[in-house]
Design a protein that fits this description.
The chain is α/β, with parallel strands linked by helices. The chain has two domains: about 230 residues, Uncharacterised protein PF07075, DUF1343 (Rossmann fold), CATH 3.40.50; about 120 residues, Alpha-Beta Complex (Aspartate Aminotransferase, domain 1). The longest helix is centred in the C-terminal third of the chain and has 15 residues.
Length: about 425
């Protein structure tokens, strides 16, 4: 098969929006001057049974469409930068195209400039999201939608499946005073939407649907979460969308274990299992594992572990901690698990445990943990040594309110399910 030629419909169980568009020769982009917001996960399968993978830019060029400009999200076009590290724009040596950074040295850099959009009539977005509100690609997309709409540029999202599936939500509200790059929009921590659905909901609530087009995935079942490799024998394969999201297992724990970023604990960055390893030099690994086990988190096993991060927190220092093994993804409440980990660490070592106080995602006047949780309530409850049910007491109402908001803007049908209790994640399609 020729470069850029994609497998025929029916040969692949799940096709991304990029692959759906490629199957038409990217007809919707012909005759247009477009920019592309992408990273290394922006792959299009081709060849027999989809064994070849082209970057979207190469697939566009093979179809006779020449992108005019590229845009890089957090971590950059090639996802080489670690978290919180500014990325410069400039000429990309692989594609020989100018790259406009959307994660620079100031909060203003998060938004495309008029100069970067000059001369474009379309901005194509193809990024793999991980289904968590802190993961910043959704914020980047929605900031780009505002900028594109103001310039008369259509934003075209080539959608990708949510690796966590699309039938469950878990978490709380983002209060207005705690909106940030890791909580720009009132979504639960685990929101159950694809990136295209987030964009569609956001556009609906902000009067921007006229400027947005979403190319949905084909064949994706929101009730079938991704396994460690793909969505079935011929499903869409996983490619790490950022440096510390190496596997699907990472994405499964991320909605809750990202909360560790708001503390002095290591969240396992600088190891081969980020967010699955948590610890600090002053923690007793055995006691920490036992304390987490005592919280009774469904589908989670915490085992004692010692690890040495290669960079970031405690680089070069051996930490006592835990390895977090998800034994039942269908029952595992990630956000509750993350809060249980923080509660256990604080109770075991109250003289050492501390919240992160440095500037976090361009915000210096509020704690990182409050930005991640969308307010102060959970932190204050943890500081008062409240039971986990009290720490998570606002989840049920927030989950139900979000399910009601999201339902009219879903792009993929969800199967009907019962209303979950506040101790378990909420089905996105829950009825009242």
């Amino acid at each position: 098969m020729a470069p850029g030629e994609v497998v025929a419909p029916g040969e692949v169980m799940v096709r991304t929006g990029a692959e759906v568009a490629a199957s038409t020769g990217f007809a919707l982009l012909r005759g247009r001057r477009v920019g592309v917001l992408a990273n290394p996960s922006s792959l299009v399968r081709g060849g027999r049974q989809g064994c070849q993978r082209l970057h979207l830019v190469d697939a566009l060029r093979a179809a006779g469409i020449a992108p005019a400009r590229l845009f890089g999200p957090e971590h950059g076009l090639w996802a080489t930068a670690q978290d919180l590290i500014a990325v410069d724009g400039g000429l990309d040596p692989v594609f020989s195209l100018d790259v406009a950074t959307l994660y620079g040295r100031s909060e203003g850099s998060l938004h495309p400039t008029p100069a970067a959009l000059e001369g474009l009539d379309g901005l194509v977005v193809d990024l793999q999201d991980v289904g968590a509100r802190y993961y910043t690609y959704a914020a980047t997309l929605c900031f780009a939608l505002h900028a594109a709409a103001a310039r008369g540029v259509e934003l075209i999202v080539l959608d990708r499946p949510n690796p966590l599936g699309g039938e469950v939500v878990e978490g709380n509200h983002v209060e207005p005073g705690y909106r940030s790059f890791v909580g720009f929009f009132d979504l639960p921590q685990r929101h159950g939407l694809t990136l295209g659905e987030v964009a569609w909901l956001y556009a609906h609530e902000h009067g921007l649907k006229h400027a947005l087009r979403v190319v949905p995935c084909d064949g994706w079942d929101p009730g079938a979460p991704m396994d460690e490799q793909d969505w079935g024998p011929a499903g869409s394969p996983w490619y790490a969308p950022s440096p510390n999201m190496p596997t699907v297992a990472t994405a499964v724990v991320y909605p809750g274990l990202c909360l560790v970023e708001g503390t002095r604990l290591s969240e396992g960055r600088g190891t081969t299992r980020p967010f699955e390893l948590v610890g600090a030099p002053w923690l007793d690994a055995r006691a920490f594992a036992d304390a987490i086990e005592a919280e009774g988190i469904p589908g989670l096993h915490a085992r004692p572990m010692r690890f040495e991060p290669a960079f970031q927190k405690f680089a070069g220092t051996v930490c006592g901690g835990v390895a977090l093994d998800v034994t039942d993804r269908a029952r595992f409440p990630s956000v509750r698990a993350g809060l249980a980990v923080l509660r256990a660490a604080r109770r075991l070592a109250p003289d050492h445990f501390a919240w992160r106080t440095e500037t976090y995602e361009f915000v210096s006047d509020r704690l990182a943990i409050d930005l991640l949780m969308g307010g102060t309530r959970a932190r204050l409850a943890l500081e008062q040594d409240a039971p986990l049910d009290v720490v998570c007491a606002d989840f049920a109402d927030a989950e139900l309110a979000f399910a009601r908001r999201a339902r009219p803007n879903l792009l993929y049908a969800r199967a009907a399910g019962p209303l979950a209790s506040s101790r378990a994640p909420m089905p996105l399609d829950a009825t009242v």
